[in-house]
Amino acid sequence: MTTVLKTEDLRKQFGQLTAVDDVSIEIDDDKITSIIGPNGAGKTTFYNLLTGVLEPTSGSIWLRSGEGDELADVTDAEPHEVAQAGLSRSYQITNIFEGLTVRENVRVARISHEGTRLDFRSRATGDESVEADVEELLELTGLTDIADTPCDTLSHGEKRTVEIALALAIEPNVFLMDEPTAGMNPTEVTEIVSLIRELDADLDATFVVTEHNMDVVTDISDRIVVLAEGSILADGAPEDVLTDERVTEAYLGSDSV
Ligand SMILES: Nc1ncnc2c1ncn2[C@@H]1O[C@H](COP(=O)(O)OP(=O)(O)OP(=O)(O)O)[C@@H](O)[C@H]1O
C-alpha cells in the first residue's frame, strides 16, 4: 500500500463560510475511495482544491506522480501542472470536441499530453506510438466499435465514457471521477460501474470517486469518506460507514442524498 495523494489541514473559506474545514486525508493506491456527503458538504470545493482550480486558504496537498516517486507538494500548482504531475479529473463532458469523432478526441487528448505538435486531422501523422496509445485507450474503455462516430451523435452514457478515455490519456497516477453516473439510465450505470472496476484492475491509476448514487457507491468502493459541513464525518469500509448513525443523520438533515 502506497499513499498517492495526501492533504494536511486543507482549508477553504469563502468569506465567513468554511467550505473545507482542515481536512487531512491519505489516499492509498490499493483501494477505490469514494468521497460522499450531502449537498453543500464541500465535495466539489475539495476536488477543486486538489486539482488546482481553487487556491487553499491554508493547508497543503501532496501528490505522487508515479511508482517510485516521492510525494511532491502541489499546494500552489496550477491545474495544468497538477495534471502533468499525474492527477486527472473527469469533467462532465466539457472537454469533448463535439464535431470530432471519438478517436479524434482521444488523439487530441493524447497528443496534447505528449506535447507533440501534429495535425490531429491528418491520417498520416507518422507517429505510430501516439496511434498505438490511442487504440489502446479506445480498447481499454470499450470505445473501439464507435471510434469513428462523431461525438455529437453519441448518447449521454457514451459521452461520459469518452470523457473517461480523455482523462486517462494523460496517464494519471490518481484519477478523480466526478459523478461518473450522473444523468445515466440504469443500463448505462451498470456498464460504467463495470468499466470503472475493469480500469481499476487493469491500470496502475488510483480511482477516487464522488457520487450521489448510493447503490453505485456501495458497489464500487473499498473505502468511503463522508464529508459534512467541510469536515470528515466518517471514513472506513462501506459496511461500517453506511450504517454509521452520524452519516444517516447528516443525510437526513439535508434535502438530498
Ligand atoms: N465560489 C463560492 N463562493 C461562495 N461559496 C461557495 C463557493 N463554492 C461553494 N460555496 C459554498 O461552499 C459550500 C460547499 O459547496 P460544495 O459545492 O463544495 O459542496 P458539494 O458537497 O459539492 O455540494 P453538491 O453535492 O450539492 O454539489 C456550500 O455552502 C456552497 O454554497
Structural notes for this entry:
It comes from Halorubrum distributum JCM 9100. Probable component of a branched-chain amino-acid transport system. The protein is built from 9 helices and 10 strands. It is an alpha/beta fold and 257 residues long. Helix 3 packs parallel to helix 5. The chain has helices at 43-50, 79-84, 102-114, 128-140, 156-168, 186-202, 214-220, 238-241, 245-252; strands spanning 3-14, 17-28, 33-36, 58-64, 71-73, 87-90, 174-178, 206-210, 223-228, 231-236. The strands form 2 sheets. Strands 6-7-8-3-9-10 form a 6-stranded mixed beta sheet. Strands 2-1-4-5 form a 4-stranded antiparallel beta sheet, covered by helices on one side. It has 2 domains: 1-86 and 172-256, P-loop containing nucleotide triphosphate hydrolases (Rossmann fold, 3-Layer(aba) Sandwich); 95-171, no CATH class. 35% of the residues lie in helices and 25% in strands. The longest helix is centred in the last third of the chain and has 17 residues, at 186-202. Residues 14, 17, 19, 37, 39-45 line the site of adenosine-5'-triphosphate.
CATH class category name of the largest domain: Alpha Beta
- How far is the first residue's CA from the last residue's CA? 31 Å
Strand order of the largest sheet: 6-7-8-3-9-10
Per CATH, which architecture of the largest domain? 3-Layer(aba) Sandwich
- By secondary-structure content and strand pairing, the structural class works out as alpha/beta
Question: Low-confidence stretches at least 5 residues in length (pLDDT < 50)?
Answer: 116-124
Helix % is: 25-40%
Instruction: Please tell me how large the radius of gyration is.
Output: 18 Å
Fraction in beta strands? 15-25%
The CATH topology label of the largest domain is Rossmann fold
* Coarse shape: globular
The biggest sheet amounts to: 6 strands, mixed
Distinct small-molecule ligands in the complex: adenosine-5'-triphosphate
What is the succession of H and E elements? EEEHEEHEHHHEHEHEEHH
Number of domains: 2
Overall pLDDT level: 90
Number of helices: 9
- Total number of beta strands: 10
According to CATH, the homologous superfamily of the largest domain is: P-loop containing nucleotide triphosphate hydrolases
Protein name: Probable branched-chain amino acid transport ATP-binding protein LivG
Function: Probable component of a branched-chain amino-acid transport system.
Pfam families: ABC_tran (PF00005), BCA_ABC_TP_C (PF12399)
Family: Belongs to the ABC transporter superfamily.
